[in-house]
Backbone:
């Protein structure tokens, strides 16, 4: 059933006048703004895009982040990675070029030098060999040249991301303060024409930049002192200011354990940005722009954290100057000016409403407009009110952030009427051709805005963005889906609607079931994997001689094999196992499905050869049927008797046992030696694609497989030498696929959409 959610601006329109901004005589705590006392110049606010680590920002998201219309965030700094591999430079270009065209400046940070330049010849940790300092400087400038040639010139480039982080298990490189000093001193002149940044230490450790700032030969080459705030206390850096250097906070996130819309948790962003501004920082850069804990969520919508950031980024534009604010209110209040504007940002993290009396220190402005974000508001324009003799009386709601500004050209109108979202009628479709890829048409053309236009559309499914168009289509397997449409009008107000789609099977469909080779699961250390050409995938599992668990199943990981899988249909399944049970004393295992009870699979059909037997409870006369819902499930196996051998399982929608070795297991590692896979999310570009796409992994892989949404392998490719990156042209039908990479260091997965 369709449900419509109207923007909270309707609530604000009723409650805002009495809650938020009360013009008139002074009645609250004093806040003195002194425009004559100036501090740092603001360079901007921004975030990170890492297309070789997570999904790239598409054009709609770049516009949402770096545009400054009422429905956009107004960020002005994009931080990207300066890759160690020149083969992936191109991945950085599209989003960076678009952000640049929207007025943003670009900072590039390297996570690792090329591996051949390092002491350990590895992408992780190690140090840069001194004999390669010159080559590394050329490498960084080579990337800068590439970006400029491709329409995305860099404003700044860093020497190293987090040189002091010794716990890294990803791309990284260790530097000492002395090594950084030597590099900047000896190679700094190569960075003429671009701003050089150091040191981007994990906790803004001044010990990494003090030596550079105190060395005249090195200091002349350093333009920006950058650092992160992990485990750090925000503090001023007088030495950097004394030397005329800008100070940038180049990476942090306040919390990755909670949803970015959780309130008032999201308000911590405002507190932190205010803190860096009061500590004379020139720039603040968040970590991932799009992430469930980021400024934009995975569903493509600006989050509460993003709206809080927008209170700074939309109104405090590059070149604004922070001015003095004196108060003892308990709120975090900062003020900024240009030659013609004044902006005040107030963060109230307390559970109490605060009444404030602002003395703006100037009679230059006749009115200011207020914008608020709170539990039920997202950058809501509350009202425009007169300023009498420089005085403005306001009330800050508990747990809120408000911006008061004379500069309103890039924010919404005060009396805006919210839009209406219309995702269309719910749909019932049938997979009549058994393709497992039924086209669903999305149509938001019925949406409207009474006093303006719809500025942006966003479709999401299971909290992931699908499309930024009013109309689109997606191919999906049978199942039930709830699409969420979000529309935003030209004044920044949002509305949402839900489209429910049910895709049913045809009467002729036959469920293929699920094949699971046991050595391809997570195999406990007390199991023994033995190679055998008679076994499926060339190997089987058993326990060591004399190691048995007869009385009850073990809950210890070392005694288990764990097999994760998914089923498309919600139905009943019979579980068959391919086993070799040579005698009545060697014919049993313990079995559990999901969180169910352990069963004793005993009295397995015996003999000297491999055979299929249905999983039953103790006696063959007690067959077990598993009723599973569509989605992910887990099968657990524990050994019982040391002579029983186990090859694979088949989860069948029928009752007829399979024959031979069965079919290939969907996610089997191509080697015959089993181990616990290390799984990462791989990069897929472009995504969606029409044909050719690029696969990018942090770990080398030698096997690439494409699986249908129900777990069937539809395409594969092997490589003679492991690779980190490849292009594939598999000529896939329209649909959604799981891309899997395998290599010596583990497995990578990603979801790919194919459209036409």
Residues:
């Amino acid at each position: 059933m369709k449900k419509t959610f109207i923007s909270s601006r309707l609530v604000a329109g009723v409650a805002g006048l009495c809650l938020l901004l009360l013009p008139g005589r002074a009645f609250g705590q004093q806040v003195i703004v002194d425009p004559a006392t100036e501090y740092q110049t603001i360079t901007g606010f921004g975030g990170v895009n890492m297309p070789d680590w997570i999904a790239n920002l598409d054009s709609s998201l770049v516009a949402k982040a770096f545009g400054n219309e009422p429905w956009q965030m107004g960020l002005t700094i994009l931080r990207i990675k300066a890759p160690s591999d020149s083969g992936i430079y191109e991945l950085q270009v599209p989003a960076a070029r678009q952000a640049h065209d929207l007025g943003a400046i670009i900072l590039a940070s390297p996570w690792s030098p090329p591996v051949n330049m390092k002491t350990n010849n590895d992408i992780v940790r190690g140090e840069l060999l001194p004999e390669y300092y010159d080559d590394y400087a050329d490498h960084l400038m080579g990337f800068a040249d590439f970006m400029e040639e491709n329409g995305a010139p860099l404003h700044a480039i860093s020497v190293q991301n987090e040189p002091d982080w010794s716990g890294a298990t990803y791309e990284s490189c260790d530097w000492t303060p002395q090594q950084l000093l030597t590099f900047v001193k000896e190679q700094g002149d190569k960075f003429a024409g671009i701003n050089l940044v150091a040191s981007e230490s994990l906790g803004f450790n001044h010990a990494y930049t003090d030596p550079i700032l105190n060395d005249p030969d090195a200091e002349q080459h350093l333009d920006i002192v950058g650092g992160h705030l992990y485990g750090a206390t925000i503090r001023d850096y007088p030495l950097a200011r004394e030397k005329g250097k800008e100070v940038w906070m180049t990476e942090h996130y306040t919390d990755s354990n909670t949803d970015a819309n959780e309130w008032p948790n999201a308000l911590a962003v405002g507190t932190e940005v205010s803190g860096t501004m009061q500590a004379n920082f020139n720039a603040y850069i968040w970590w991932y722009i799009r992430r469930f804990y980021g400024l934009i969520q995975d569903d493509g919508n600006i989050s509460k954290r993003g709206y809080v950031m927008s209170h700074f980024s939309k109104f405090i534009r590059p070149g604004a100057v922070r001015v003095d604010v004196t108060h003892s209110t308990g709120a975090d209040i900062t003020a900024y000016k240009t030659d013609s504007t004044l902006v005040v940002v107030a963060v109230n993290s307390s559970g109490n409403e605060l009444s404030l009396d602002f003395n703006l220190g100037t009679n230059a402005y006749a009115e200011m407009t207020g914008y608020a974000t709170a539990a039920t508001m997202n950058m809501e324009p509350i009202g425009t009110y007169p300023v009498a003799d420089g005085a403005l009386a306001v009330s800050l709601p508990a747990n809120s952030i408000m911006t008061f500004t004379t500069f309103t050209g890039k924010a919404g109108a005060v009396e805006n009427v919210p839009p209406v979202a219309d995702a269309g009628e719910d749909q019932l479709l049938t997979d009549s051709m058994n393709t497992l890829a039924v086209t669903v048409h999305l149509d938001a053309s019925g949406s409207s805005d009474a006093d303006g236009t719809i500025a942006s559309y966003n479709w999401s499914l299971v909290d992931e963005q699908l499309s930024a168009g009013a109309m689109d289509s997606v191919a999906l397997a049978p199942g039930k889906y709830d699409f969420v449409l979000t529309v935003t009008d030209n004044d920044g107000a949002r509305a949402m609607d839900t489209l429910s789609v049910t895709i049913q099977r045809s009467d002729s469909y036959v469920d293929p079931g699920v094949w699971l080779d046991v050595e391809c699961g997570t195999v406990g250390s007390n199991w023994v994997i033995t190679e055998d050409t008679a076994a499926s995938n060339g190997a089987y599992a058993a326990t060591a001689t004399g190691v048995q668990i007869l009385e009850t199943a073990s809950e210890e990981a070392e005694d288990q094999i764990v097999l994760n899988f998914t089923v498309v249909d919600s139905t009943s399944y019979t579980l068959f196992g391919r086993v070799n049970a040579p005698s009545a004393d060697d014919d049993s295992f313990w079995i559990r499905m999901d969180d169910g009870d352990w069963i004793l699979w005993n009295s397995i059909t015996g003999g000297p050869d491999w055979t299929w037997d249905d999983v039953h409870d103790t006696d063959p006369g007690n067959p077990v049927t598993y009723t599973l819902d569509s989605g992910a499930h887990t099968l657990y196996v524990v050994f019982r008797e040391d002579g029983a051998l186990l090859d694979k399982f088949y989860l069948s929608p029928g009752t007829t046992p399979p024959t031979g070795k069965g079919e290939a297991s969907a996610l089997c590692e191509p080697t015959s030696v089993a181990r616990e896979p290390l799984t990462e999310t791989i990069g897929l570009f472009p995504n969606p694609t029409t044909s050719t796409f690029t696969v990018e992994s942090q770990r080398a892989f030698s096997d690439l497989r494409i699986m249908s949404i129900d777990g069937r392998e539809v395409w594969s490719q092997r490589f003679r030498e492991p690779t980190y990156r490849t292009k594939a042209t598999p000529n896939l039908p329209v649909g959604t696929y799981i891309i899997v990479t395998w290599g010596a260091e583990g497995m990578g997965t990603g979801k790919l959409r194919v459209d036409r």
About this structure: Residues 1-26, 669-679 have pLDDT under 50 and may be disordered.
